[in-house]
Every structure is written in C-alpha cells, then in structure tokens.
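By convention, the token line describes the chain's fold. To illustrate:
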Amino acid sequence: MKHIRLGEEFHQMLDDLQEEEKDPSSIAKAIKSVSQYINQYQNASRESMQLAQKLVKIEQEFMDRLLMYL
C-alpha cells in the first residue's frame, strides 16, 4: 500500500510540474541510484528530497521483508 500512495504522490508532482511519466523499466533502473541522486542534488526542492528519501526507506523495508523468505 505504501508503494501505491507514494506512486500517487509522484504522479501528482509530475502533473504539477507538467512532466511526462517515464517508462516503469526506466524508473526501476533509477531506483538503484536514488540515494546517490539525493547526495548529488542537495539543492533539489524540499518536496523532491522528501519523496526520494521516502522511496529509499520504503524500498529498504520491502527488501528487508523479502530477505526473511530467502
């Protein structure tokens, strides 16, 4: 459910900025680098940084839950 809510926030931000949505496969590749981007773009808007940090946290929690089954 967190992924859905976060996705909705991203969609709203893209709409507000009049940006096109990217192909999910491109987004999946970018997820690996989100932490690096957070460090690289420290002058990004507060809202963007918060969403990126939220994404990293959710993905880490998801990975931790999956590891229990491996």
The chain has one domain: 2-67. Helices lie at 2-16, 24-31, 34-40, 46-67.
